[in-house]
Structures are given as structure tokens and as C-alpha cells.
Amino acid sequence: MQRWPVVLFLAWVCFLFFAGIGLFMSGFLLTRIELASSSSCSDPLVPPPWERQSLPPGSCWAPQRFSKAVLVIIDALHFEFARFDPAKTSPLPYENKLGVLHQLATAQPRHARLYRFRADPPTATMQRIKGLTTGSLPTFIDVGSNFASYAIQEDNLLAQLVQNGRRVVFMGDDTWEGLFPKKFFRSYFFPSFNVKDLHTVDDGILQHLYPTVDSGEWDVLIAHFLGVDHCGHKHGPDHPEMAKKLTQMNEMLRSLVDHLGNDTLLLVAGDHGMTETGDHGGDSEKEVNAALFVYSRTPLFGSGPPEEPETIPQVNLVPTVALLLGVPIPYSNIGEVMADMFAGDGDTVSAALQQLSVYHINAKQVDRFLQSYSLVAQDLPAEQLQHLQELFSSAVEEHTQLLTQVQGTMVPPELEPRLGSLISRFQHYLREARAVCTQSWARFHPPRMVGGCILIASSCLLCYMASELAMSSQSFCHSCLLYPLFWGPVGAAVLWLVHVFTQEGLDLLLVSSWAAAVSQLGFFWHWWAWLGLAFPMGILFFRCGAMFSDSFVVAEARVTPFLLASLVMLLVGKLHWDGRLTVPEGPKQQLLGFSSYRREIWYLLCLVAMLLVCVRLSSFFHQCREEIPQCRPSVFLSPLASLRNTRAKNLFYLLCVALLAGLVYAVQSWLRHYGNLNSSGPLVLFVRWGFPLVVLCIACYWAVASSADDSLGKLQELVQVAVVVFPRAVYGLASVGLLLLLCNPMTVFAKDTRESAGSIVTPYLGVPGSEVDFLHVIPQIYKRMQESQKSWLERGSCRATIAAYGLGSVYSAALVIALTLLGFLLMLLHSERLSFAFLLLFVEAFVLLHIHTLTLIALIPVGEPFSVPWYAVISWLLAASQFFYSTGHQPIFPAIHWNAAFVGFHLDHNTNLLPAVLVGANTFASHILFAVGCPLLLLWPFVCEMSNSQRKKLKKESREELQEVEEHMMEMRLRESPEEFSTALLRLGLKYLFVLGAQLLACVCAAMILRRHLMVWKVFAPKFLFESLGFVVSSICLLLGISLVMRVDCAVSSWFSQLQLR
Amino acid sequence: MREAEVRRLLGANLLRALAVILSALLPPFLLDGFSLLGTHLTWICVCSLCVATLNIVLHLVLKPNQSPKRRSFAHKISRFLKCCIYFFMSCILFHAIIVLYGAPLIELVTETFLFAVLLSTFTTLQCLCLLGPNIQAWIRVFSKNGAMSIWESSLQITSMCSILGAWFGAFPIPLDWDRPWQVWPISCSLGATFGYMAGLIIAPLWIHWNRKQLTYKSR
């Protein structure tokens, strides 16, 4: 097989998988259907006639109560931040800081009130802004588009305000710019993406806020502060910086209140809360629990505040503000008006009448929305809609009945309780409607989902078949046909017997499907037994089965290491059971009944122990999920800058840098050992000098980044520059290195001591003279040269030679260099102390390769050298997913390391591509490294050939030298049979894709089958998204890795042809 | 293959299974507040003790591998001490392996160690009784054609079933069912026990069914 077909075939298989993923995703992650209609003043939502005449000018559906409003959104204003408890003596940094809210609420109980503001998940800022303006529930898929906000198409509060001639002024978070393009009368946008920047947005708003308020050229003013949210992301809520930020907000509110006029409504709202670590995005209690504060200079509420602040859903703000400002409620709103703000200053009866009228308008609007929505989409269950319709019409009927008995605002006293009950009926209707919508706005497209599933499954099957094609043999038919035919009737008979004994009716379909299942089992049983696959496939089966249980997905960080350890232990156990570890029994042992181990067993056991220790140690780097409340996130996840203890900080810093240096040293000495460091080519020079330079840059960056923010004083500006320059230097150096690797991947040093005279026509090979040379340098050369050397030896003269240093490991050397460079890049993107996890990753991969080599070469000499067994591929992939967790990730959105987008980029990004790549590389670091390193599984046994034969040589000195040279072929064995080499690479890639695809298939099926599960949006859907993204990243990196090997192969070919020419 | 020996093996294995069952059923009458799940550590101790005693008694009574030579008393003592050391070392080894598999490192050390003791009782102790402190013989027994008598075949099957049971016992731990038996190490020790009992039942049956194929090499 040629080189290109291999890569093309693999790419085609990847494409099949991608298509399946895409098809499934389009069916699984649909957005809610957005209605294009919008409300207008002239809508036939007729208010009662007596009220209609009394509508003041500028009012639409209900009388306008405020002509102006100020909406202050403090991002991530958790309810606990806004609550003030005077009894608390030693408040935490985030407690009791917003004193002004408390003072207003206690001094003027009818003017001000604090609410618990329940955000709907997902609690990402863009979704919350959508919810706060449309009054609807944004769906899951929108989370993905958080980087680039798209304009809101639905009817919303801002559109209504603009439509009715209000001047809306905005200042703050520039997410609004994308959502509401050209809607604002005047706007001051500030970049929102840099979460490390606490002050730009807030200071910018404060600069414009008071002048704007005083100028009076506005009707609605929206100010979106981001400092609190960014402070939470950077430091967490429990930090002195948060106290500073909240105090600043307090001062802002205090002076803002003084600037307000009598006709102005002030709303202070948090769009979502934050977790203990300052993150948000999910639906945990802390994330959805925000605060809302309402204040006006004129009395607003009919009665004093309740004991415990009321809890209201976030969408309720939309109809309330719309009606208070006298504009129509947005078309798709499903929120409910906040009745106590419509009480006015009249008596209870007139208050009740007013509330009744707004409820009536609200209910009619929701009913209209539900009706037109059900015309467009069928996802709301019909019987529930019917039920809602009944609720609505009966309430409306009673309402009209009641109104006929009411004259003006005079209500007969016997009707007063009926007023109250009617209000609660409207309330009941609105809440039911909201519940129905919440429940079913995860709409699926089953045919597409099934289609995607089938496509992925068939691609998996294709991978498997194609990778096993070479293994077909005579006994295939026997085990494929005979056993299933035998087992099918047996299964049917068993079921029939069971039915006879239990006296139950016999269903033909059941019997036949049972027979089919059993015969298939028989097929797989015999086939697998024949292939000796049962045990690695069993582990893969458990791994895939675990995707179907939310508990196992939550606990996957512990499940994967468990399975990896089991796989390796089983491998050793199986080797022992088959007697591969013991020396073949001689007569002496047979006599005693004992068996003794080979020498390699101790090496193998040490490796297994090392692997287990690595696996166990890697569990110290786990991030936590909220589902496991007793879990504490690893201390290594936080950046060094957050450490307060200076000594510990310095110590960790030194350790990290030493680790980097150690890694460089290890890689260099490995290359030197195999003779790949002798050449003077640009790549080798880069390995010699570029690697230490990269490490130096990373060390400098870490030093600058981990130093305290304020301690440097005047050097601040220099630090700002350094924080950007050093990572960019690393990016530059690494890309130079990768380019060099692509241009000239040969790390071979040819020492040509041939006589230049034309007397010797064909080149030939000998061994270098000194013993040291022999130990550290491997002379390699083509077979033809050996043949000619034979004749030379027979003549028994001259020592002239071509010594090609490092030819035997030229493929692996290129891969190792690429992996090291990638490792540096990925370490740079992670927080400093996670480099320990990367060290474990490299060690574990090294150990896995050695175990694989040992079992393949030393212990099973009959094994095919060109085929990588399944257990190796599966353990490689298990290690990849294990280190996904051990580099501090979890398949949930709040656990994404967003900070990675700012490594080397201090200012805001212009495009979304670069931050997406950086964050993606951070998240899938282990997938990238293991996928690129995948061809090593094929190459390593050849590389390690030397050390084994060397050991043999030490034992048996008498061996002929020539044979020794033949054994030192190493990776050139691969070159000798290019056909088999290509096929082996193809099969390895297909096996890798099969195992990846099986995991993906399990995730996809789990998401499809459990799509109505309680945990689907919290566990299965994020898991599916992460797994499919991981698949895409892995497969692309696998292609890159295999192409790199091919590139080296091309270079080796041209090198040989050059050698021939000389 | 003598049928009588298989019958003896079946009897011995049934006795062992009975001992395990009794270790769960009897103590509530003797000890206050004993329950399998509530005072699980006590049960592990009781169960290990019962099985260990029974194994030793059975070994002395049945003498499955009579050695022709008569040994001196001092030799027997040293052999016994060696056995004790081996048993202790196997407990430590099991403990280490369990921790490497993901058991907590510092917390719950007692629980983990007692579980290791239980596993050692089900596996190592039987080896010690049958084969003595002879690693080479152990290695030989646990390979494909290594068993030389039905007792050794039974040893193979029961040990593997115990370890497999313990492995499967770890599966329910992450589930969110909030059952009392999901607490570490209850599910694993129960799994090991059920695996052991299953092995005890399976071994004679398997040997009976495969008696044609089983041609043990004579010494």
C-alpha cells in the first residue's frame, strides 16, 4: 500500500464519523423555535373599557406608572452579596457590603424591596440577557455561541421600548452590542471578554453614568457592570478583592439614588449567581440564586416587605417592567407580572382591581403566544395545552362576569374574596404555562438522531472490519456460521422450555428474537475466543456501558483509572496463565513440579507497579463536579498567583521549572542514547538549543504571571509587556520547531569514511571501532550494503564504513520531538502546577509503551511485529481519557479553563478563532498528546529491539558479530517492507478510531435514549459534547501524527537515494 | 479420576460455604447490635476467622497432599512461622493494590486493611494450606496446565472467583442509590464473599464435568 491512500482512507473514516456526529447533533441540540411576531400597541388584547379611556398618554396596554427607568445589572450578583445582616460581627469578604440596599429597604419599606431572583439555567451571561429581555427560556445550544453573540430575533423589551419611541441608553458589557445592534439611542460599550481585567468596564461606566443621568436625554438607562463577575472568575468570592469591588458598587448605587428623579424606577439585578469558586453556567443552587432590588422615590408597594425576601423567576421582570413603563409585553414572554408593584397607593380593593387587570393582560398575552407557538411547533404536549386552555378560558369568563358587577372602582363587598381567588387563578394559569414550557423546551429530532447513531455505529464496524481484514483465515467460516447456527436453536429451545414451565403465552416474535440474540452471542463468543480479544474488549465494553449511567459519568474520573489498572493487571495475569512468563520447562523443573520466571518478569512487574503508581498519583489533580458535594478540588489547579504563602509559592515555582528542565534533559538524553543528537542539521540544533530556550521563556512567564499584582509597583508596565511577550516567544519557538520538523525531519548523522576513489562502487557497512561508540551509537544501513559487506568481511580487510547514527530510531525521534514541543505548548496553557500532571502523563505513556514492547517482543516472540494488539490501543486511549481528568478538566461547562485564552494575549481578541483554539487545546491536551503519539505504539517495539539484543550479547559473547548487526535493524525493518509498514499504520489508525468511535457511540446512544432523563442537560448532553469534540480533536491529531511518520518516511527515502548517488 | 475424591472436595467446599453463611447468621445471637452492614468490620473479622479456622482444620483432617516424609517438630514450627509471614505480606500487598486501584489513601485505613485480610483469607490462606510457603508452586498452580490435583483446580477456581467478585463489587460504589451497602468496603467485601462461595460451588461441578479432560500429571 502506498503512503497517501493510508492517510486518505483514515481521513475518509474520520469524515464518516464527523458526519454522524453532525447529524446526531442537529437532531439532539435543537434550539427552541423563535417566533418572528411582535406585540404592538394596537393588539386586540382589549383592556376593559372603563380602564381604556383612563389610559394616560404614552401608555399602551396598561397605564404607565413610570416614565423613566434605570436598570443596573451587576453581573453575577449573588443573593448573598446583596443581603445585609447587621447582626453579623465578622462578615466574609462578600457579605454586608451593599449597605445602601438595606438602608433604603428599612428606611422606606414601601419604596424599596429586595427579591431573590431565580435565573433559569444555563446561567451564562448571554443567555441571561436574552431571558431578561425576551421573557423566554433560552435553550442549551446557545451556550456554545457565547463567544459570538448573535442579534436577538425575537420580540423583546428593548425592541418594544424603541418601537414606542423611548430613548434607550446603554453602558457596559459589549455583549449587548451583538444582541441588540443599532437599538440604542446612545451607547458606551466596553470589552467584556478578558476576565482578568476587573476595572475597565466598571470605571468606563462610572465615567459616563452620572453625566448621562443628569443630562436627562434618556428614557431607559441600562448599565451592565462586569467587575464582580470577573473578580469571581479571577479570585473567587471569598477574596479581599471582592470586598473592594462590592464596596465600589455600593458607592455607585448610593450616589445613583441621589441623582434619580421622582418619575424614575431603579432596578438593580444580578443576571446569575456564582459558585464557591466564582464560576457559573450550570444550574446549581448557588448559580441560579441572584438578587433583584427595586426602588422608586414615589411609594411603589402596597404593604411592607415580607419577613423573608420573596423568590421570583427571572422572566417575571419582563412583563412587569413593560407594563410599568407603559409598553406592550414582548410577544414570546412567559413570565408573570410581579403583582405587588401594581398595588399603587390606593386601598386594597382598588389595588386588587389594578392587579387583576394586569394579570388579565398578562394571561391573554401568554395565551396568544402559546396558541401561535402551537401552530408552528408540535413540541408542547397537546393535552397539557388543552388543560391550559381550559384554565385560561374559565378564568377569563369569570373575569368578564365579575367586571359586569363592578361599576367604576366601586366593588360590592361580597365580591372582594372573589377578586382574590380570581387573581390566584390567573397566577395558577401563568405558572402552569411556564412549567409546561420549561418542561418541554428541549426538542429533539428522532430520525436524525437515529440516523447519526447508525452512521457512527456503521463507521465503527467498518473500522473494525477493515483493521481485521488481514487476519481472516480458514477457520473464519467455521466459527462464523456453524456456531451461530447451533446456538440459535438452543436458545429458542431454552426459552420454549421456560414458557412451558411457566405456562405463559408463547410469542413467536419473542422466541425468534431470543434465538437471534443467542446465536449472535454464540457467534461473538466463538469469534472472540478465537481472536483472543475477550479481555481488552470486555474492558472497552465496561467503559462504554458506564456512559449510560449518570453516576458513572459523574464518577468517570475514578472509573477510567480503575479500568486502566484492571486492563494492565489482566494482561499480566493472562500472560502468566498462558505460561509466557515462565521459562519453558526443562526436565529438571518437571521433576520438581516448579516453574521459574524469566528474567524479564521483574522488569515487567516494576513497570506495572510504576504504571499503577502513576495512575494513582494522577488522581490528585482532579477537578470537582457539583454532583459530588464532599469533593474538594485539587490544590494544584489554582494558579501560583493565588498562593498567599510566599515560601510555598517559590518552592512550587522552583519545582515546576526543575521539572521542565528535567523533561528537556530526559528527551535529550533519550535522543542521544539512540544517536539522534549527533547531526548538525537545523532540527537537531533546535533540540539542543531551542528546547532550553523554550523552557527559559516558560519559566520567565510563570515567574511574571505568578508574582503578586501590586507588589511590583513601578515595574507594572514592564510586567504587562512581559506577560504578553514570553508566551508569544514560546508560541513562536514552538512553531519554528514544528516547521523545522516538517521541512527536514531527519535526525541522522552519516559518518562517511569511504575512500573517495572509485574503487568501491557499492557502499557497505561495518561497525564503529570503540566500545563506547558501540554502546551509544547504532550503525544502520541498507540490506544491500550488508550483503556487500559480507563479501568484504570474507576478504577480511579494510575498515572503511558509512555509519548512520540514529537511523534506527528516526521515526520515533521525530515523534518524540513533536510531542515534547506540543507538551511545552500545552503546559504553558495550563496553570503552573499542572505540569506535574504532564510529567505523570509522559512517564505513564513511556511505561505503557515499554509494557507493550515487553509483552510483544520479549515474551511473545511469535507475535506479528507489524500488528498492534487491541489491549495496547485500548490502554493508550484509557490513559488519554484518564489524563483528561488529571489535567484538571471535567466534561461540564463551568470547568473549562477560560483563562487559557489569555496566555500571551492581554487585550481583547479580535476574532473568536484564536481563543477557541487556545481553550480547546487546553481542554483536550491529553487527547492531543496521546493521539499524536499513537504511531509510537507501532514503532516502540522496533526501537527497543536494540537494548534487548544488547543484553543478549552480553550474555552470549560468542555470538557472531554479523548476526548482531542484523539484529540492529530497528525501525529500518519497517522501511524494508514499505507495503507492510503502510498497512500497519492504517490498521493502527483504524483500531484507534474504532475504540474512540465505540466510546463516542456509547455517549451518543446514552444521550439519545436518556433524552428525557432528569440529568440529561447536566450530565449526558455536556458529556456527549465533550466526547464528540474530543473525538474530532483526537482524530485530527491522529491523522497529523500518522502524516508526520509518512513525512519522515519520505525524507528517509530521499536520504537513501542521495546516499546511493554519492 | 476417583469419584470419591471429588465427593470429598464437594463436602469440604460445602462446609466452607456453610461457614461463611454461619458467620453472617450466628453472631447476632451472640453479640449485641451485630448486623452484616451496620458492624461490617466485625463481620469481616468473624468471617475471616471462621474461614481460616475451617481451612486449617480441613487441611489437617483431609491431608490432600500427604508428604511421604515425616518432618521434625522444629521444621514444622519454622514452616508455620513462614506461613504467618507470607499471610501478613499478602495482606500488605493486597492493601497496596487496593489503594492503587483507587481506595482512599489515608482515610478508612482499617476498612481497607480488613478487606485485604478477607481477600487474603479467601486466596492466600488456601494456597498456604495446600501448597505451603512455596512461591514456585504457587506460580505453577496459577497457570494454564499447572493444576496437579482436583484440590489445586479448586484452589484456582475459588481464588479467581473471589478476586473477580471483589472487582465487580467495586462497580456499584459510584451509583447514587444511597444504599448502606454501597459504602466502602462493604460492596467489595460482599462481592468477594459471593465470588468465593460461587467458586466453592462451581469448582466440584466443573471438575466433575471436565473429568475426562483433566489428566493431572503425576508427580
TrEMBL record, chain A:
Question: What are the protein's UniProt keywords?
Answer: Coiled coil, Endoplasmic reticulum, Glycoprotein, GPI-anchor biosynthesis, Membrane, Transferase, Transmembrane, Transmembrane helix
Q: Which domain of life is it from?
A: Eukaryota
**Major localization class:** endoplasmic reticulum
> In the record, what terms sit under GO molecular function?
mannose-ethanolamine phosphotransferase activity
Chain segments annotated as coiled-coil in the UniProt record: 948-975
- Transmembrane region positions? 449-469, 481-501, 527-548, 560-577, 601-622, 651-671, 683-706, 718-742, 802-829, 836-862, 913-943, 992-1010, 1030-1056
Q: What is this protein called?
A: GPI ethanolamine phosphate transferase 3, catalytic subunit
Q: Where is the protein localized?
A: Endoplasmic reticulum membrane
Set out the biological process GO terms recorded for this chain's protein. GPI anchor biosynthetic process
Q: How does it sit in the membrane?
A: Multi-pass membrane protein
Q: Which Pfam families match?
A: Phosphodiest (PF01663)
State the CDD domains in the record.
GPI_EPT_3 (cd16023)
CC per GO annotation: endoplasmic reticulum membrane
UniProtKB/TrEMBL annotation, chain B:
**Cell compartment(s), UniProt:** Endoplasmic reticulum membrane
Its primary localisation, in coarse terms, equals endoplasmic reticulum
Q: What's a BP term from Gene Ontology annotated to this protein?
A: GPI anchor biosynthetic process
Q: Which GO terms describe its cellular component?
A: endoplasmic reticulum membrane
Pathway(s) annotated for this protein in UniProt: Glycolipid biosynthesis; glycosylphosphatidylinositol-anchor biosynthesis
Q: How does it sit in the membrane?
A: Multi-pass membrane protein
| TM annotation in the entry | 12-29, 41-62, 83-106, 112-132, 153-171, 183-209
Sorted alphabetically, which keywords does the UniProt record give? Endoplasmic reticulum, GPI-anchor biosynthesis, Membrane, Transmembrane, Transmembrane helix
Q: What is this protein called?
A: PIGF protein
State the organism of origin: Zosterops hypoxanthus
Source lineage: Eukaryota, Metazoa, Chordata, Craniata, Vertebrata
Q: Which gene encodes it?
A: Pigf
